[in-house]
Each structure stands twice: as C-alpha cells, then as structure tokens.
From TrEMBL, chain A:
Keywords: ATP-binding, Nodulation, Nucleotide-binding, Transport. Belongs to the ABC transporter superfamily. SMART domains: AAA (SM00382). This is ABC transporter ATP-binding protein. One of its GO terms (molecular function) is ATP hydrolysis activity. Residues 8-236 form the ABC transporter domain. The lineage of its organism: Bacteria, Pseudomonadati, Bacteroidota, Chitinophagia, Chitinophagales. Signal peptide: none annotated.
From TrEMBL, chain B:
It is a multi-pass membrane protein. GO terms for molecular function: ABC-type transporter activity. Pfam families: ABC2_membrane. Signal peptide: none annotated. PANTHER family: DOXORUBICIN RESISTANCE ABC TRANSPORTER PERMEASE PROTEIN DRRC-RELATED (PTHR43027:SF1). It comes from the Bacteria. Keywords: Membrane, Transmembrane, Transmembrane helix. InterPro entries: ABC-2_transporter, ABC2_TM. Its main location: membrane. The chain crosses the membrane at residues 30-48, 54-73, 94-123, 135-160, 172-190, 222-241. This is ABC transporter permease. GO terms for cellular component: membrane. The lineage of its organism: Bacteria, Pseudomonadati, Bacteroidota, Chitinophagia, Chitinophagales. It is found in: Membrane.
Amino acid sequence: MNNHEQILNVEGLNVYYGTTHAVQNVSFDVKRGEIFGLLGPNGAGKTSTLSAIEGLLNYHSGSISVAGHNNKAKPLHAKAALGVQLQSTSFQPELTILEILQLYAGIYGLSLRKEELMGKLQDIKLADAANKKFGQLSGGQQQRVSLVIATIHTPQLVLLDEPTTGLDPQSRRQLWERIEGIREKGHGVLLTTHSMEEAQSVCDRIGIIDHGKVIEVNTPEALIEKHKDEPEVIRVSRKGRITLEDVFIALTGTEIRS
Amino acid sequence: MEINIPKSSTVFSALLRADFTTQWRNRRSAVLALLIPVIILISWKGIIVKYGGAFVLSSSIALGLVAIGLMGYTNSVARDRDKGIFQRLRVAPIPSWAIMISRLTVQLTMILIVTICVFITGYYVDGIHLSAVGYLLTVISALVGGAVYLSLGQMIVGLIKNPETVNSTTRLVYFVFIITGMIGGLGFLGDIAQKLARWSPYGTVQTMLAGSLQPDLWHNETTMALLVTLGYTLFFAFMGIKKFKWNTR
Ligand SMILES: Nc1ncnc2c1ncn2[C@@H]1O[C@H](COP(=O)(O)OP(=O)(O)OP(=O)(O)O)[C@@H](O)[C@H]1O
Ligand SMILES: [Mg+2]
C-alpha cells in the first residue's frame, strides 16, 4: 500500500471502557479523495473509534496515523490535519454564533476578518443567526454550525459522526455537496451514518462494524454483489432489488441493540 | 502536504477573547464575588477601631478570593465539562493545558479587579490608607492567595464529576470559610479552634494579606503563612490535575 495515498491509517485498534471491550482489533484506512463510511448498529463502536482517532480517548493498543503523523507521538500534528464534528457538540452558551466561529478559527490558527466569518455563515444560510446563541438555533441549524467549524481550516481529513441526523432534505443535499467538494480537493472524509441509502449513494467505500469488530470493508457495489445471493439477504430484502440496507441487516442481524 | 500547527499567540488570543466574553456575559454572578467583600468592608466599619484596618481589609479580600476561586472558576469548569464543551475544544490542535491557562487568566484578572475595588472602598468608606509598598505587596499576596482557592476548586472538579454536586460542595466550602474566618479572627470558640482556623487555607491567606497590608509588621508567622499557603496550593493543584477528567461519561 502506498502510504502517501493514505490520509488515515488505523491498525489493530483496541478500546476498553473498564472491562467493556468496545473496539476490538479494528483496522482500516481512508485514502485521499475518498469518502469512507463507517456503518454499524447502535453501540457498535463507531464513536469510540472516531474518539480514538481524535485523540479524545487513550486507546489500549494499536496505532493510528493521520496524514502520516502518529496521533500519540505527534498529537498536535495529527489534530491540525483533522476537522471534526462530534456526535453531540456544545459550545459555550454565552457566546454568539459569530463569536464561536471566531474562537474556532483562532484555535485552528486562522485570523479571519469579520466579513470572512460572515461569509462562512452565509454559505450555510445562517448569516441572520450570527448574533444568536447556539442554544437558540434549531437542531438542524446547530448541526450546520458544527459542520462549518469542522471544515473551517480546510482539513485534510474530516471526521463526521452522524452528520445528517436532524437535517432537512435541503440541508442534507447541501451537506453532501460540501462533502463531495472535500473529496474533489483530494482530502478524505470518514463519516458514520445510519442511513444506508445515503451511504450507498455517497460513500466510496464502507466499513461495517458490529460488536466492536470490523466485519467487512468494501465498495457499496462490491458488498451488494458479494452478498446478494445469500438466503439471509434475500429473506430480509423488502423491495425487489437488493440494497445495501438488506446486506447490512443480514450481516448485523435483525435484533435491535440495547 | 505540509501541516502547520497553529501559532500559540493566535490560539491564546482566541481562547482569551472567548473566555473574557463569557465572563463578561456572566457579569451578574461575577458581581457577587465583588459585592461581598465590599459589603463586608462597609458593614464592618465599626470593628476597624478594635481589630484594625488591616484585619478588615484582609478578611474581605480573602472572602472575595474564595468566591472567585470556588464559584467563578470551579462551577464553570464543572458545567462546561458536563456539556462536552471541553471535548470539542480538545479535538483542536491545542495543548489541553492552554484551555485551562486561558480560564485561569480570566480569574486572575477578576482577583485584581476585586482587590482594587476593596482598596478603593477601604480608602473612601473606611479611611484605610496604605503605603505604596503595602498596596503592591497586597496585590501580589492576593494573586498567591487566589491561587489556593483556584487550585482547591480544581481539586473539587477533579474529585467530583456531577456539576450539581460540585455546585453544592463549593457553596458548602465557601460557608465553612466564612465561619472559619470569624473563629480565626474573632476567636469565638477558644484557643485551639482559633489556631486551627489560623492555619486553615482561609486563615493563612488572611494572615498573609494582613502582613502585606502593613509590611512593617510582617513577622515570622506571616512568612510561615505564606509558605503554608504555597504548600496548600501545590497539594490541591497536584490532586486536582491528577484526578481531573475532561469528560463526565
Ligand atoms: N464513556 C464510556 N464509558 C463506558 N462505556 C462506553 C463509553 N462510551 C461508549 N461506551 C460503550 O461502548 C460501546 C460502543 O459505543 P459507541 O458510542 O462507540 O457506539 P456507536 O457505534 O457510536 O453507537 P451509536 O450508533 O449509538 O452512536 C457501547 O457499548 C457503549 O455502551
Ligand atoms: Mg456514536
């Protein structure tokens, strides 16, 4: 594998919470110019995997490198190459949206003028909300703000944890366009989603994770092609055509997770 | 592709700007830390004759410092941690301690403001006039004393995660310090209680402040109080940093 092509490399990752082995020997990589979807049922270990990459938790073993920098040996280099949207984000409730943007521009090393920051808000149609507090925005608007912050420094790798949750169809469209724009620049995207339809249409490759283990990594088409004739897939399929969702459910089981 | 780590100056000015703005928006609760010492100064005017200006000034500054360290710093850290605000900051390419240094800078500024307000009130309301050296030393002592309560607060958020519990703990400790101040200074409960109170984290700061206000009267016990204060700070800070977790989950 050409290391230069990889923007993220995760190798043999193990995360424990006390005795819970939340991420078990997970390995995958994300290439430049690729949108990689991490799919799995609730509690599968997606957020835990992302947290380990973000440097928020001290993983037990394995190695993670972002843009060629090991995130334990060179945490600031790894973080500087990352743009992050957490599954649940909150910002200081006293600050306005504009002030929050200004804060994050600054801690990513940018000194943007007010007009430039307003331009960023205009892109997500929230210029009117510049002087509102984060808590005064609707859930979807908050999601848009945290997405703008995730990409404010045009990072080489963007991590998005369920970015489309709570977005209306218009914003969702816009988000996909932005994500595809990141890919066109040759940067990488690692995202999680529970929408198989989205994953199928947007992701270049998909990793399916369950009970902390990666069970498959492939393109959506290859995953469907590989499993489409299995009886379990055909049994769970509801439409005439086999979809990624059918494959996902067949692989991870029909049971709802605790 | 080259990766640039943000310049420390850009990072710090962004953090400081946000933290000062936050403090400004919360000025109503900050005013409390300011008002209590001033109210003490005004209402204790009568006992100045008996106990001296230095005692009254040092007591009110000490209580102001406790309020800043425990209410201002501690409760806001507990709240922001619980909301996940730190987690978002920590995924940025900044060292974690920078987040805390910025917050502490805001609190040290508050300490300066409270101290100056006490000086002004003392001067005009109580007619307490100090030498230039006295004022300067007191400002330094206030910063050293403030550090005890900031680190005590750090220890509280290090040991307790739930912001509600942190809140009630800081209130309780604040109350205990007020009582301690009365016992130590006014000696209600006899000699042993008074001695304990004098060497408590409240008492040592108050002694140190009183010594700074009148540098000619600085004696061995004042130096001991300064050393003990530094000892408390180191212990609280060590515990507070060692036990601190950035998230509550
Ligand atoms: N801080 C924590 N302490 C203890 N256990 C945790 C913690 N965070 C996560 N877990 C456990 O680790 C497992 C993986 O959780 P994780 O949040 O990574 O799942 P996920 O795939 O992101 O799920 P979801 O789709 O619901 O977001 C779960 O069993 C969860 O209960
Ligand atoms: Mg999750």
